[in-house]
Write a structure and sequence with these properties.
The protein is 22% helix and 31% strand. By secondary structure, it is α+β, with helices and mostly antiparallel strands. The radius of gyration is 24 Å and the shape is globular.
Length: 558
């Protein structure tokens, strides 16, 4: 039987939350006190609601109380488990293996409503939930292997894989092939008459294998080679490709359609064990780590891959509460080291999705390296966090109320905390995906505050529900209709962010907006990259955007 979502009556969907700085708060299953009496079972028919016992809780270095509770998740090996947890403070959910060690981290110090996707292994599973305040956890689906339905498979392209296929037909094994792959690393890159071919690989006796982060802008199924232990999928790609990806073996295949089936890949997506360049902000487990590939023709960004661990500047934080939005979010300000000489040239950067840009992208260190090289002036950065996932989806897509709250409520508080007045000409608002959409629309609404925009893979495919089917280029239409504003823009898109066949995608809508902006006389910088919707690429894009808009005289002279 396919399980259905169950809600506890009176449970609140959503909540206010905070985000810690650079993941300094990590709720360890080894150090936190664990409640062991009367373990509760989390099932589809039994959602769990309660509070951490604050009277017995410990305090971390930020003086925040936290405690760990232990729950049981009844299951059978291979069950596909989905659901969500809500909490008023940052929360961590860990799956514990039979030895009592961390198997995987489902949720890492996030607040608000957070979805989880997992495949059961050590049944019945033990989960540790760490945090403070109240919590509400719901198991929406538990789908057994028997209930899952496979995807269709298709054909071959790679000369190397073709050669291996010939060897298998002669009765040989794949052992030598995988020794070669272990030495060279994955994915396999070949020059062919049709162009550069990239082949993603997996090894094992699986029911299916998928790829997340593929150059096709889709979740791709790898094909099994002649009943062997080898799985493959090939793509013709540009020579400047750089991307991150994960391999997903034995993806649950619930008998569902659309997003509900597509999102199942998150339950098993993990680092490619044969890739030589893993990338992660935390490295808790193989599920929180991605694999990367950077071809020779990709942009060279030595200042991004610095071995420097800690930023050289200082951080400050405060909580911004808006009665208009009815929520609270954490604001983090990063102030770089400045001299009396370069202080007058300082740029003020506002950027959305604070946690990702502080922890995963490591933007403070990137900025320090760019400044040290003389590529850009000092950049004071204001990182704006999201109260929760639902608030992000509601506030960032061209929301005029949110734009006005930033302009009229947040900005005055920021100005009070800055050591100097920075004019709009040196103020830039930036973001990726929905954040790029928000940065553009907010600057066009408030050019008296934001004189510059950096939009990375902006979601300009978005349009209000009332928009007609014949005109999905909402932002471009707004630009055409409004008077020209005193705003400079840097737009970017990945070549793999093309349409999946239904309407225009990020690539097409960014190109259209670029053309409209240029036609209206806006100073518009535009770059396309051999990449997808990917923070791995955005690390370099944010640097390119700042250099394009604020390059120092030293860099221009080069």
């Amino acid at each position: 039987m396919i399980s259905k979502e169950v809600f506890v009556k009176g449970a609140k969907r959503g909540g206010l939350g905070t985000m810690c700085l650079i993941s300094l708060i990590q709720f360890s299953v080894l150090s936190a006190e664990i409640t062991s009496s009367a373990l509760s079972n989390l099932t589809v028919s039994n959602a769990l609601t309660g509070r951490f016992n604050d009277t017995q809780s410990k305090k971390n270095e930020f003086n925040q109380n936290f405690k760990t509770i232990k729950i049981i998740v009844p299951c059978e090996k291979g069950d596909y488990l989905t659901g969500y947890i809500e909490n008023s403070h940052p929360i961590t959910v860990d799956v514990i293996n039979a030895k009592g060690d961390l198997s995987r981290r489902l949720i890492d110090n996030k607040n608000g409503k957070q979805d989880f996707y997992s495949v059961a292994k050590n049944c019945d599973e033990i989960w540790h939930i760490s945090g403070s305040g109240s919590y509400h956890i719901v198991l929406e689906n538990r789908i057994s292997l028997k209930e899952q339905t496979p995807d269709d498979q298709s054909k071959i392209l790679s000369p190397v894989i073709s050669s291996l296929n010939d060897e298998l037909r002669k009765g040989q094994s794949t052992e030598n092939f995988w020794k070669m792959i272990e030495r060279k690393g994955t994915p396999l890159v070949e020059n062919t008459p049709n162009g550069t071919l990239m082949t993603f690989l997996a090894r094992g006796s699986y029911k299916n294998v998928k790829l997340i982060g593929a150059p096709s802008n889709n979740h791709e199924s790898l094909q099994r080679l002649a009943n062997s232990d080898t799985w493959y999928k090939s793509f013709i790609i540009p020579d400047n490709t750089h991307l991150s990806y994960q391999i997903a073996p034995d993806v649950p295949q619930p008998p569902l359609t659309g997003f509900a089936r597509r999102v199942a890949i998150k339950a098993v997506a993990q680092v490619d064990p044969y890739n030589h360049y893993p990338w992660s902000s935390s490295g808790f487990d193989k599920f929180s780590t991605k694999s990367t590939i950077t071809l020779e023709g990709a942009p060279k960004n030595p200042m991004i891959d610095s071995t420097e661990i800690k930023p050289k500047g200082t951080f400050s934080q405060f909580y911004f509460t808006s009665s208009t939005l009815a929520n609270t979010r954490e604001i983090t300000i990063y102030s770089p080291l400045m001299t009396k000489k370069n202080k007058k040239d300082a740029v003020l950067l506002y950027i959305f999705d604070a946690q990702a840009y502080i922890e995963l992208v490591n933007l403070p260190t990137i900025l320090d390296n760019l400044m040290a090289e003389g590529a850009i002036p000092p950049v004071i950065t204001v990182f704006i966090s999201n109260p929760d996932r639902e608030a992000r989806a509601r506030e960032l897509p061209a929301n005029s109320i949110f734009a006005d709250v930033l302009a009229n409520e947040l900005i005055p508080q920021i100005k009070q905390r800055l050591p100097m007045i920075i004019p709009k000409e040196k103020t830039v608002i930036a973001g990726s995906s929905y954040g790029g959409l928000a940065a553009t629309t907010i600057a066009l609404r408030h050019p008296e505050i934001f004189g510059n925009v950096i939009s990375m893979s902006g979601s300009f495919w978005w349009s209000p529900k009332a928009q007609t089917e014949n005109d999905k280029h909402f932002v471009a239409s707004e630009v055409i209709a409004m008077d020209k504003k005193a705003v400079r823009l840097f737009l970017s898109a990945g070549l793999f962010e093309n349409s999946r066949g239904v309407g225009d995608g990020i690539l097409e809508t960014n190109r259209h907006l670029r053309d409209v902006l240029l036609a209206k006389g806006y100073e518009t910088h535009y770059q396309e990259y051999g990449a997808g919707h990917d923070y791995f690429s955005w690390r370099g894009v944010i640097a390119d955007g700042l250099i394009s808009l604020f390059a120092t005289n030293k860099l221009r002279e080069k």
